[in-house]
Amino acid sequence: MLEMKNINKSYPIQNGGVETVLKNINFTFEAGDFAVILGPSGSGKSTLLNIISGLDNDYEGEVLLSGKPLSKKMLDDYHKNTIGFIFQSFNLVPHMSILENVKMPLYLDKSLSNEARNQRAQSLLDKVGLGPFSKKKPNQLSGGQKQRVAIARALANNPAILFADEPTGALDSKTAHEIMTLLKELAADGKTVIIVTHEETYLNEATKILRLKDGVLDARATDALIKNKKIPVLNEQKKTKSTLSIWAILKLGFKNFMNRKLRNILVAFGTSIGIIAILIALGLGNGVNRVVADLFNNAYSPNQLTAFFRAEGTSGPPRPTTPLTAKEIEKLEAMYVKEHITETYQTSSVSGIKFEYKGHLLEKVPPASAQEAVLSAKRYEQYSIDEGYLLAGHMFSKSEEGILLPSEAAKAILNLDNSDELTKGNTKGLVGEKITIVASSRNSQAGTVKIDTQISGVLNPESEGMSQGFLMSQPSYDKLLTTGSLTKDIYTVDGFATSPDEVEPLIEKYREDPAFKNYQITNGVAFLDMITQFTTIIVYLIAFIAGLSLIVAGVMIAVVLYIGVVERTKEIGVLRAIGYKKKHIRYLFISEALYIMIASNILSAGIAIGLSLLANPIIQNQIGFSQMIHISLVNIAVTLGITLTLGILFALYPASKGAKLDPTEALRYE
């Protein structure tokens, strides 16, 4: 039973006055009523319908449902469980099939499976005579067929009360008769049918007639009421809360996304530009860190310590740039002895080395640093083909002349374009060949000094240690120094602890020792950590700058969704009328923003990975390092998470705007 008690409704007008639309309305509707509300335009018919249907709650008086006042808190569940709406202009969602239109109220019951929803919607379409048309879109139907779909949608949740606002106003007389006959049949089945109309054709068949004029109600029951008075409410559904599952939100959001797919994909593409830049920056950081890690792991043993002089105030990364004096060498040697490190080496190097092969200068090979191989044979055991450090040849012995040829020099000798083309097969022929070392010398009239030595092995570019330069045997190194009258400059004093666990405490100890404030005592791991931190800062700074473009993209998404709110105003009104809560409207718009961001990330990942596949061979050809841009799944996942969060934030305003629309105003929107 639905009862109106002392309903009054007024609107404020200019000059501070009010216009009364409804005056002291009292009336009761019962199960099986086929009630007709009549009146001229402006008499308050639609206003009264909005009040008793719960769309308008700004009035005086009470609406009672089964004796209980209809509160604001229960309106959404009232729309879902108790009432159904049939509109004059049908208000079907144009981009959905008629089956999906009928299913819209059924998504609010998350206990139903998708199959159950389909079966329920199909049975209702069968009931209104549109079963074979379930896959058609609304624009493929006639006016009468559209109204039948609207009726089927209104019946989806098996409501006890049906409200019809001018249901035949847009139909021809034949179709109008068919629709009214269908509504009468529903009343005969126990539904309460309340029709707002200005037509008096069906008054003889109404159980109750309500005439409105100037906001005053003149109501009466007819003889038909006696016939229908004892009709029970049939097949009443179990009342459930108006809830929308995450799956339903995502499904409906996807349909909305696809309905405007071209516009949304263009926005996604615009958004992807910033994401691509972020992914490339992160991928480059991954590649640089990997290359640096490989270089240092190859150059340093985990229990190796390196000590060198570092003048106070020196900027830049810690590296040996100044030769050690005899006193400094003595001090560092004493430090190792104090720490019970007995295996120590004084390392010397000559920078700016060029190569000649068979009388031709290898001009494309950048200058290298020749380092004297002073470590014990045990420390060079990894330099073998089996360990992957060499492509061909072997590590020279302490007494023989030779060098381990850098891969760049091997590439130039073999006239290859890419270091990846170096193989065991094509480098094997270089082993044992003579090569000329060219170094600068102030004591030479020509300004350079040349010595011949042999190629003992060829370094693998994947395992080559850049910080180590290339190794030269002691006999060849001495020959270079003697021939060029070069001084043997010692840059570092290296020591090997018995265990890697001893290294970090020792480094920390001397970092705080004032007596060693002008010295750097470190190892490969410390170098690596420092360079990795530096690289990470640079990468994140680049990523942040690139990420600023996402703000612009977020504004684009907000604008597109706001336009969507305007375009779908009437649709929002319909959703609110059939039981969708404000939060459901918000979720639908937010889900659309998420789909835009997901599409943007898919585009970004594909384009960024494609760019890395194109750029990596070029980078390798230029500087010799492979996979310098390495975009990981973690990078993609993190970027997705950040951009989805941004999408939600920028969708909040338009989503809230749509959720706050007044249902009655939204339904009147054109």
TrEMBL record:
The ABC transporter domain extends over 2-239
Residues crossing the lipid bilayer are: 265-285, 537-566, 587-609, 629-653
Q: Which GO terms describe its molecular function?
A: ATP binding; ATP hydrolysis activity; transmembrane transporter activity
What processes in GO biological process is this protein linked to?
amino acid transport
Give the membrane topology, semicolon-separated if more than one: Multi-pass membrane protein
A Gene Ontology term for the protein's cellular component: membrane protein complex
The reply on keyword Transport is yes
Write down a Pfam family by its short name.
MacB_PCD
Q: Which domain of life is it from?
A: Bacteria
Keyword check for Membrane, yes or no: yes
Q: Which InterPro entries does the record associate with it? A: AAA+_ATPase (IPR003593), ABC3_permease_C (IPR003838), ABC_transporter-like_ATP-bd (IPR003439), ABC_transporter-like_CS (IPR017871), ABC_transpr_LolD-like (IPR015854), MacB-like_ATP-bd (IPR017911), MacB_PCD (IPR025857), P-loop_NTPase (IPR027417)
Q: Where in the cell is it found?
A: Cell inner membrane
- Record's keyword terms, sorted: Amino-acid transport, ATP-binding, Cell inner membrane, Cell membrane, Membrane, Nucleotide-binding, Transmembrane, Transmembrane helix, Transport
Q: According to its UniProt record, which protein family does this protein belong to?
A: Belongs to the ABC transporter superfamily. Macrolide exporter (TC 3.A.1.122) family.
- Report the protein name in the record: ABC transporter ATP-binding protein
